[in-house]
Specification:
Structural class: alpha+beta
Largest sheet: 7 strands, antiparallel
Helix content: 40-55%
Low-confidence stretches: 1-13, 610-616, 660-665
Number of strands: 24
CATH superfamily of the largest domain: GAF domain
Number of domains: 5
Number of helices: 21
Mean pLDDT: 83
Shape: elongated
Strand content: 25-35%
């Protein structure tokens, strides 16, 4: 395999399918995706995609016009920078845009020779040094609305199936963000309309009128003529002519509002009018009834305002609410839904009437009522919900899991919420966990037999072995040990995730625990002349409340990592420091350090730095993830500090033990 192929293989396997699914869930749960500043959402999405796929460049393009594709955001990993505003004319790249219409995803290992990408070769590809591209279509109800473009420079890259699935999911997510941004734009436009109306009212841009009930006379101010689209020089208003302009379907409603005004004193009605040119407008009329006094007849005195644009915006917002594939709802303080969209009924099986007629707590799984009530109470204090999950009973009797994002409007005390059905995703996660656990258990027994057989042969019991055979057996034994370690780590992580690992907390002398861990792990570095040096100025009697076996497991992971990444004849420093009511145990090496791009993923499962040096070191990529879970299970915390080329320091913090803590434990 040449260096280019090796680089391609490394890039393609940098993230496994399970990792990409986990990253996808984390990205989706971020509130930044639905920020009021849409630019922040796009910048967040491009950067997260770049980090997830280890991609050099990630950009999002949307159609600003029917034939112009505009770059909304381009993130460049090496520069850690964002840029935008580059445009592509559809007519200049017919093959590329034709391919987007036919395929939801285009994966090009060699962009310069790909039929759909070759049009960019002379300009865009050569200028930016782009070798490989992975493009995913952003769809909307109107069809193609944009593209997510992932680009690799310097060397070619083969895009794995998992990576293609991931970028397709990101394109679907981008479609939701784009729809949300259009919704925000509609809201802003609607607010602007309201501000314009307020300004018009302050400047006497509202039309006024006065009607005599007894004789049908009608007076209009100049603005009313403009609203109704008639020429004041050719039109003489009257109650009869006014009703001719009212939409036929609304005449009875307007007449009824006038009768109610005689009883209640005020008229407030929204209706349609038909202009002489046949077009239609919405108007809002507000009037006050004045009773007859002496010779003065009874009158209606009021104002009229053109609200056509507001009605159109309101209808568009209603359409967004109705067409959303996610659950959207509004609830009041009495735990009743006041409004639900069609998706709510489709996902839960209940009709809108059924959902509105009962407290929403009736639909929640009994075991989730307390956590749901606590979440609502938190919102009463001003906190926004993001990622909260509970189970809702489907009309068929089974339960589905919903993940909520919601906010409380303090002005109305109403809860505005959206939710996604993640039942299938959780089922897939459970199946995955069961599969890993089953495979791990099934592998442990034959591995034990293989290890025993290899040890027996290598011990010389079956006779002296030739050097070459001994070397091969040693290699096999080492790999069996690595595989056994991987299986043990997998089982431990699955037990922790399922809450099945037994952890017995007891007061333990921290200095003695650490000293024993140093002694136990010292042989690991002797073949490379690496020393473990313990420094402590703490009282030997300091106690922490931990499981001694699991604490030793955490220390073994930290010490073996430090030894593994240290140069030959180096010293690994182990320190114990008391910090107020906590004690910190740190392990410091002088190895290559941790790259900035890898720091965010350091405690994730199967995480390994993407460099040839690290791959030579081997390892399962589970040690730090397991250490984090074990430490937190013992009420501690884990962290690190590092600079590239300057070594790394990993540390765990535990609270000092007190009698009360032991009793609670």
């Amino acid at each position: 395999m040449d260096s280019t192929s090796a680089a391609n293989t490394s890039a393609a396997t940098a993230r496994q399918g399970q990792q990409l699914l986990a990253l996808q869930a984390r990205i989706l749960a971020s509130p930044l995706l639905f920020s009021s500043d849409t630019n922040l959402a796009w910048q967040f999405l491009t950067k997260q995609i770049s980090k997830a796929l280890y991609a050099d460049r990630v950009s999002i393009w949307l159609f600003s016009q029917s034939d112009v594709l505009q770059c909304i955001d381009l993130y460049q990993y090496k520069l850690n920078s964002h840029s935008s505003d580059v445009c592509l004319q559809r007519s200049n790249y017919p093959k590329y845009f034709s391919a987007l219409q036919q395929h939801a995803l285009i994966a090009a290992s060699d962009a310069a020779s790909h039929p759909a990408m070759a049009e960019f070769n002379d300009g865009y590809l050569q200028t930016a040094g782009i070798r490989s591209m992975l493009d995913a279509v952003i769809q909307s109800e109107q069809g193609l609305s944009g593209v997510i473009c992932v680009e690799q420079v310097s060397s070619r890259r083969c895009w794995s199936v998992d990576e293609q699935h991931f970028i397709a999911a990101m394109a679907s997510m981008a479609s939701t963000v784009h729809t949300f941004s259009l919704h925000l734009q509609l809201q802003r436009e609607y607010q602007l309309v309201l501000e314009r109306q307020d300004m018009a009212s302050r400047n006497a841009r509202i039309g006024f009128w006065e009607a005599s009930v007894s004789n049908g006379e009608l007076w209009w101010s100049p603005m009313v003529y403009d609203i109704f689209g008639v020429d004041p020089q050719q039109f003489s208003p009257s109650v009869e002519l006014f009703y001719q302009l009212v939409h036929p379907d609304d005449r009875a409603m307007v007449q009824q509002s006038e009768l109610q005004a005689q009883l209640l004193g005020e008229q407030n009605v929204v209706h349609r009018i038909v202009l002489p040119d046949g077009s239609m407008r919405w108007v809002h009329e507000v009037a006050k009834w004045t009773s007859p006094q002496g010779s003065e007849p009874a009158r209606l005195i009021g104002s009229v305002q053109d609200i056509t644009q507001q009605q159109q915006t309101r209808c568009e917002l209603q359409q967004f609410f109705s067409l959303s594939r996610d659950i959207l709802c509004i609830a009041n303080k009495q735990n009743y839904f006041e409004r639900v969209n069609a998706a709510f009924s489709r996902i839960t099986g209940y009709s809108e009437t059924e959902l509105l007629s009962r407290p929403y707590t009736d639909f929640i799984h009994p075991d989730d009522l307390i956590s749901t009530d606590a979440e609502v109470n938190e919102q009463q204090q001003g906190r926004v919900t993001s990622g909260f999950c509970n189970r809702y009973r489907h009309k068929n009797g089974h339960y589905i899991t919903l993940q909520w994002s919601s906010v409380l409007d303090p002005a109305s005390d109403k809860l505005y919420a959206s939710a996604q059905d993640i039942t299938e995703r959780l089922q897939l996660e459970r199946i995955k966990n069961e599969f890993v656990s089953t495979v791990s258990h099934e592998l442990r027994t034959p591995l034990t037999s293989i290890n025993g057989a290899l040890a027996l042969v290598m011990s010389g019991c079956v006779g002296e072995l030739p050097d070459q055979v001994a070397q091969l057996l040693q290699l096999a034994n080492n790999n069996c040990q690595r595989l056994t370690s991987l299986i043990n780590d997998l089982l431990d992580i699955e037990k922790l995730s399922a809450g099945m690992m037994q952890i017995v907390l007891q007061p333990q002398p921290v200095v003695a625990l650490v000293r024993q861990s140093v002694v136990d792990n010292s042989p690991y570095g002797r073949d490379r002349n690496i020393q473990l040096q313990l420094q402590t100025g703490c009282d030997e009697q300091l106690l922490i409340n931990v499981d001694s076996l699991r604490f030793s497991q955490v220390m073994a992971n930290l010490l073996s990592n430090a030894i593994k990444f240290s140069p030959d004849a180096a010293t690994v420093l182990v320190q114990i420091e008391q910090q107020h009511q906590h004690v910190r145990i740190s392990v410091t090496d002088i190895g290559p350090g941790i790259a900035d791009a890898f720091k965010a993923a350091i405690f994730q499962r199967f995480s390994q730095a993407d460099s040839s040096d690290t791959r030579q070191k081997g390892g399962t990529g589970l040690g730090l993830a397991l250490s984090k879970q074990l430490t937190e299970s013992m009420h501690g915390s884990i962290g690190f500090s590092s600079s590239t080329g300057a070594g790394a320091c990993f540390y765990v913090d535990f609270p000092l033990w007190s009698g009360k803590a032991a009793a609670d434990a």
